[in-house]
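hey so i finally got around to running the thing on that chain from the lab meeting. sorry it took forever, my laptop kept dying and i had to restart like 3 times. anyway pasting the input first so we r on the same page abt which one it is
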Amino acid sequence: MSGDGTPPAFDGPTVRPSWAVVIPTIGRPSLHALLVDLAAQVFAGDPPVQVVVVDDRPLEDEAPLTLPGPTGQLPAPALVRTGGRGPAAARNAGWRTVRTDWVLFLDDDVRLPAGWGEAFLADLRSADAQATVAGTQARLHVPLPTDRPPTDWERNTAGLEHARWATADMAYRRTALAGVDGFDERFPRAYREDADLALRVRQGGWELLAGDRVTHHPVRPADDGVSVRVQAGARDDVLMRALHGPGWRDLAETGRGRFAWHAATVGAAAAATAALAARRPRTAALAGLASAALTADFLRLRLSGGPRPGDAEWLPEWRRMTWTSAVIPFAAVRHRVAGELAVRGDEVPPWRPPVRAVLFDRDGTLVEDVPYNSNPDAVQPVPGAREALDALRAAGVLVGMVTNQSGVSRGLLTAAQLDAVQRRVVELLGPFDTVVVCPHRPDAGCTCRKPGAGLVLDAARRLGVAPWECAVVGDIGTDVEAAVAAGARAVLVPTPITRPEEVQHAEVVAEDLRGAVRLLRPDVPLARHLAVTR
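ok and heres what got predicted. didnt touch it at all, straight out
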């Protein structure tokens, strides 16, 4: 996207637009079925260049996620772990991992019918041929029971058939994603993050199209309390209003919801409680009756489209609806209040907020690379390292170091020797707000070693900042990959050992550390430098 937020100049349609698939997952069994469906498709010579599965389970979850190898036209899926930070963060890590013209997002619980591949390519080529089109959405079909009316949860899922720009199956032009910095990771749930992205993309001058392909979205199994838990989305509604104003629902083309009635139900219950405390029984009775009547009406509405007595599943459904209809208004109001308190008095900045912490790799980035260095006297800062660090410190930006040091586990240096080298680095470059070290071998299977997200996420936690408020500066591809997986910005500062493909793949490249700082925090005064942004 150009500097004024409009789509770039159009040079004509891509003859064969390249595309990649990104699938965020929390390890549901449905992932395997989706990958089987994808491998069975016919792509008429234009298969995806990459398939990226983003494992968004917490890093503590060590259960293996088994992925298939290459099948037919489908390449072997690559795996990225993001540490349980939500679907927005997972999708961002996925699209920032690839460099194709288009990125197709698929939820891990959709199914692709026969013929989907040809229909998708037709949608993709049609969208690619139009200069201002940034995305193409599938038509979602939610299979419902044929032997009985659908339950409340089934009807709720069926609402996806009318959802605008849902990323259950949505392809975006990569330049459009980059132009708005992708999904806003401040939306932690699978709710409103896709509406927010679509709204920002359209405000940037792009168009979004509904394609002709059909994707099936089966109803996920759910426990009795699911309808209560989804009320947490009220917090995201508050964030949408803070970001886009009171008319955000019209702009984002979303429904109105029932929050006003929930607030009235809770207000009446609170009035009844207050009246009882004030020993005004008549007022308490009237307010309690009003709250009960609103709850009963809510229950009636939820039961009206569902199973009736005699239908299969009617008794469990009525039991669920009875207790959840009483709880939902209070859950919705609680989450709305929590959301309001989170943004009260604060101006919520547009995505993406400024960098508050810069995390540096050590060897090859801050100091000359001495493999498995155990000698403090061999520490030699790279030119400009102290200046760059001091400039950040003076500007109030937190600085940290995140470094792989497998020499410890390899037996090539002791922990005491590593500490001595680290102390020498601090003597020469000044103090760091945090230093996080991975001592493990590459084959240890740890989640901290770069290119994993662990070191960066741990550093962000220690510094008290969000991962998206961090940046990582390093000299090789694993530094960049760790930043992407963690949701941080990344700047590559190449050295003679940096591979050409790592430079080509990096989104932001700087000539030196001063250039990296300038790209990340233009307000920090530094000497002139050369920097390249892709």
